[in-house]
Amino acid sequence: MKKNLVFLIILFFSLVSIFSNGNSEISENMNNNQSEKVLHLAGGNVGTLNPFQHMRRGPGIFRTFLIYDTLLERDEDGLIPWLASAWDISEDGQTYTFYLQQEAKWHDGIDLTANDVQFSIEYYKKHPPVYDTLIVNGKFIIDDVKVINEKTVQIHTISASVSYLEHLGYLKIIPKHIWENVDNPKNYQGFDNCVGSGPFIVESYDSALGTYRLVANKDYWGLKQAVDVIEWIPVSDNILAFENGEIDLTTISPDLINRYDDNKEYTLSQVAALHSYRLMMNMEKRVELQDKNLRKAIAYAIDVQELIDKIDRGVAFKSSAGYIPNFSSYYNEDVVKYDYNKQKALELLDGKEYSFTLLTDNSSESMKMCELIKLKLEDVNIHVTIKAIDSVSRDDAIVKGDYELVLVFYGNMGGDPDYLRDIYTKKSNYLKGWSNNELEGILEQQSVEFDLEKRTALLDRAQYIISDEVPMYLMQGALWTFVYRPEVYDNWMCRYDHNYYEHNKLSYLIR
């Protein structure tokens, strides 16, 4: 399936120019190919780049932000104005008024207005997008939205929450004039199904090859693009492709750091991933796992430092059993810590033996990690059968609860710690067969506590309960090492809630 929007968009802008200026100058979207600055990245199919048809995991989510704008954006420090140039919040914390950029337009030249924001919210309630920021703790957080004028919209939420501004701000706005006529957005294949207001336009997409070509929207209302074209192409070996100049950025394993470290042609940059390897336990499918002693025994039996040394070659950090990373200002250093302790595990098991199937993706790294985990668990009479499938099927199995134990490398650890409600409450559907009433109450309290000291105390208690109950075991987070050629492109940056260069919209814009 190929998307060829740019020709139609160029034609539209050319006609506008003819009728409005009385001449036939070619639209600025017609770039001189010889002067194009093209950025090449390793790709693969992540679905159609609209809010309803991209694949669930990272790359699909973040590429759509290049096509569709949000009310707010995120930089290294927090939320910044974007489609909304300013906003107000009522004293009761439930009414948000957003003032839209005056010059914002859709890729097809039509003005973006408050009607589009209102429509997006109402449409998402009926047709949830893949990445849904408006569902928090199982509830749709908006109960009313009003258009005040063409460039002002007012949103009322079901309750007050310290995190709602972030949820509202990261809502992808879609064009009413396109989607109001679409009854089934997951299957819509119209030529205009990737029209957004963002800095880049989908010129072509080939689902079979997994290739994408995005071109700069020369009439973009916001920051100018740092490149004219972004191309994602599938490669069989990222390192080889990088060294051959086929791609311009890659991550490298620890054993390759010395290969680039002393070469001035390259820049190495290392950042802590807001992700963690985690062992999830399905307590619905295997009720034995409802025994806290068994879960704690599993945690003590796994030697995380061994995983860091052998899998990550030392370039990783031990995750907190309380979930919030230890480099967060909200981290509680008094959480329960599960250093490797075979004897402690055996004491907690009290002579009992168990057998489980451990699901993983079929990457070599995950397979090696599972083998090491299996050996350690066997030492305490917990017998493990490893089942490896592709990562997409593994993710589907997690959603459906079709696993006993599963190893997954997953994020949702950046930004406001209200994300704990997305994971550790009954309505989240993330953990199967486990809940804790005290924790649920605390997480509700912290979500509406605007006093920082009081909220921090609540989050400290929440982290302790999570670490003591260990409903899933967080093991280690990666230290991602990026390598790139600064002479080719040197505009990469992280966000305060997501430390992956390629996924950050601001990495492609002149700041």
Tell me about this structure.
The chain is α+β, with helices and mostly antiparallel strands. Helices cover 28% and strands 22% of the residues. The protein is built from 15 helices and 21 strands. It has helices spanning 5-21, 58-67, 114-126, 164-169, 176-179, 238-243, 257-261, 292-301, 304-310, 342-349, 364-378, 391-400, 420-423, 437-447, 452-469, and strands spanning 38-42, 72-74, 79-81, 84-89, 95-100, 135-136, 139-140, 142-149, 152-157, 200-206, 211-216, 229-233, 249-251, 267-272, 276-281, 316-318, 354-361, 382-389, 405-410, 472-474, 476-484. Helix 14 (437-447) runs antiparallel to helix 15. The relative contact order is 0.15.
Give a short synopsis of this structure:
The chain is an alpha+beta fold and 511 residues long. It has 15 helices and 21 strands. 28% of the residues lie in helices and 22% in strands.
Distance between the termini: 34 Å
Overall 3D form: globular
Output the structural class. alpha+beta
Which value, in Å, is the CA radius of gyration? 24 Å
Percent strand equals 15-25%
Write the layout of secondary structure elements.
Blueprint: H1 5-21, E1 38-42, H2 58-67, E2 72-74, E3 79-81, E4 84-89, E5 95-100, H3 114-126, E6 135-136, E7 139-140, E8 142-149, E9 152-157, H4 164-169, H5 176-179, E10 200-206, E11 211-216, E12 229-233, H6 238-243, E13 249-251, H7 257-261, E14 267-272, E15 276-281, H8 292-301, H9 304-310, E16 316-318, H10 342-349, E17 354-361, H11 364-378, E18 382-389, H12 391-400, E19 405-410, H13 420-423, H14 437-447, H15 452-469, E20 472-474, E21 476-484
Parallel strand pairs: 1-12, 17-18, 17-19
Antiparallel strand pairs: 2-3, 4-5, 5-9, 6-7, 8-9, 10-11, 11-12, 13-21, 14-21, 15-19, 15-20, 16-21
